[in-house]
Predict the structure.
Amino acid sequence: MRKIEDYSSDIAIIIKSKTKKGLIKEAIYACFEYLLGKKPMLGKEKKVIFFEIKGNLEDGIVDALNFFLKTFYIEKYVPYRIYVKETKEKNFEIKAFARLFNGNLIHYIKAATYQDNKIVQKGDMFTLKVVFDV
């Protein structure tokens, strides 16, 4: 579950999930949904991307978002199906199926920084707030 709040100079995306794995997945989807709109223009060319988050999950989510945004910016691939699994070492492995983005990149560059990435647990739900500078 995710919602977007619009502040004057920032956009905050609130992400909720029952699992930390779900939080990672939703955070990545939410960022691309914000950047590209709900249905980005994707080409036919596909790619599989592997990524491992080592250690602290809070820092790891920012690492993952930056990794995927960099992949998007440099190679123009957008993840459309994401699988996250926890390893024995308590790291998180991400496998993403990505497709080539056919749109214009100029509008999407500003959103590559994050200010607030604290995970809060209330009951059985984890909440993450990702704030973009715009």
Q: What stands out?
A: Residues 2-133 form a domain with the Archease, Possible Chaperone; Chain: A; domain 1 fold (CATH 3.55.10.10). The two ends are 23 Å apart (CA to CA).
